[in-house]
Design goal:
The protein has 425 residues and is an all-alpha fold. The protein has one domain. The chain is built from 17 helices and no strands. The longest helix has 53 residues. The two termini are 26 Å apart. The mean pLDDT is 87.
Length: 425
């Protein structure tokens, strides 16, 4: 055991996990603090509109994921394992430059599409004002995020995490000032845009500093085309995934008031921060224990252990959150959100199938099984849609939670089927 713990890959993964854990804990604390400030300042109805604007943003965001980490990380890892000056394979500068160009073009198109829809007046004016600023984050997060992907491939996410920590704390301080000075609700979205721009600039500066002061990125047409073709199916799969994750609020909004949507969204926002821990575990452990492992028996054992570990960790955490639900909701959101307590108690248990699914998904990503990814999230989306349309009119928020649960279980079932097919001895 000590010999395994001293292995360089394990040491790097544990160090990376520490920083990811620290960053996630701070981000959760900041997100909870900001949500509490905004919920008390806005009240349930305006907070529901703010959450709906964020939901629409997160539905738009996958449009910018045309060349995601599931393609870039394995490509960069393969490049790092190729000897320097080797004629085989693309260079790091070509990979990052081509990915950045593709992401920026798609992100700009998504932003203009969003602003065009807002100009036509399709949304509530307050929701539209909030979304106008929030949508600018599309132009910075994914394109400049190629630096974060490069760090992830090296199992060295600390620099990007420190940047995220610093800007999150700064944003919380500015939100506090804006609340105290009674800034109009529609202007808060521009603060999120400023944060995204600051993170993007800082990532570029760090990459140049670590690369001898040079950016060294360039667009390689063949690589650009490859990212477009290889990423298209993954892209559609990720769009289906995020539609599935936000479908509950999109449908619920048509059956309940903005105030009720605000209470449901308050519980789900806390829960989503908790579920993010499962994704964090998957992202930090994948390069060392899945992507670089070629022996099928060892790979199968690693993935099984990761699924069990994630399920147990999230189950134990869910027990604690279930017991503390009342105290958490009252402290964070105040008495006006009392009805969110039972919703939160049920919602936290979604983290268990979400964690198992995230770990099982690593096999799909390792073997670049893009059609499996697309089919999986399309099935989850359709299952959730059917359950939502059937149960939300009857059970409201609990019908929405049922749709999420059924969707996660469907996605997990596809993962297990592919796992058995791909790693059968």
């Amino acid at each position: 055991m000590l010999k395994k713990l001293n292995h360089p890959d394990v040491t790097k993964a544990l160090g990376n996990l520490f920083w990811l854990g620290l960053e996630r804990l701070v981000q959760i604390a900041v997100a909870i603090a900001i949500s509490g400030l905004l919920a008390r300042y806005f009240g349930p109805e305006l907070f529901g509109k703010w959450q709906y604007a964020n939901t629409l943003l997160l539905v738009l965001a996958p449009l910018t994921w045309v060349c995601g980490s599931e393609i870039l990380v394995p490509t960069i890892v393969q490049t790092q394992q190729t000897p320097q000056n080797s004629p085989e394979g693309p260079t790091l500068g070509a990979i990052l430059g081509s990915a950045f160009a593709l992401r920026f073009m798609v992100s700009l198109a998504a932003l203009l599409l969003c602003w065009g829809a807002l100009a036509l007046g399709w949304l509530d004016p307050v929701v539209g004002a909030m979304l106008a600023g929030l949508a600018v984050t599309l132009l910075f997060r994914e394109p400049f995020g190629v630096v974060s992907v490069w760090l992830q491939s090296k199992t060295h996410s600390k620099p990007a995490l420190l940047i995220g920590l610093s800007t999150a704390i700064l944003k919380a301080a500015v939100v506090f000032v804006m609340v105290r000075t009674l800034v109009a609700p529609g202007r808060f979205g521009w603060l999120w845009a400023a944060e995204a721009a600051l993170i993007g600039v800082a990532l570029i500066v760090y990459f140049m500093w670590s690369n001898g002061g040079r950016l060294g990125w360039r667009i390689e047409p063949e690589l650009f085309k490859r990212f477009v073709s290889a990423g298209a199916i993954f892209w559609l799969g990720l769009i289906c995934m995020y539609l599935f994750l936000k479908l509950d609020r999109l449908i619920l909004q048509h059956f309940v008031s903005y105030a009720a949507l605000g209470r449901y969204s308050a519980a789900q926002q806390l829960n989503e921060n908790w579920i993010t821990l499962a994704l964090m575990l998957a992202q930090t452990l994948a390069p060392a224990f899945v992507y670089r492992v070629e022996h099928l028996l060892k790979l199968r054992g690693n993935v099984v252990r990761l699924m069990c570990l994630a399920g147990v960790v999230m189950a134990l955490g869910s027990i604690v959150l279930d017991l503390l639900a009342g105290m958490i909701i009252r402290r964070v959101f105040g008495a006006a959100f009392e009805e969110a307590i039972p919703i939160f108690r049920w919602a936290v248990w979604l983290s268990v199938p979400a964690a198992v699914e995230a770990m099982g998904n690593l096999i799909v990503l390792k073997f670049q099984a893009r059609y499996v990814l697309l089919v999986k999230w399309l099935i989850a989306l359709l299952v959730a849609l059917c359950v939502d349309m059937l149960l939300i009119p009857l059970w409201g928020a609990y019908g929405a939670l049922s749709g999420l649960a059924c969707g996660y279980l469907s996605a997990t079932a596809v993962n297990l089927y592919y796992f058995r097919y791909r790693l059968h001895p």
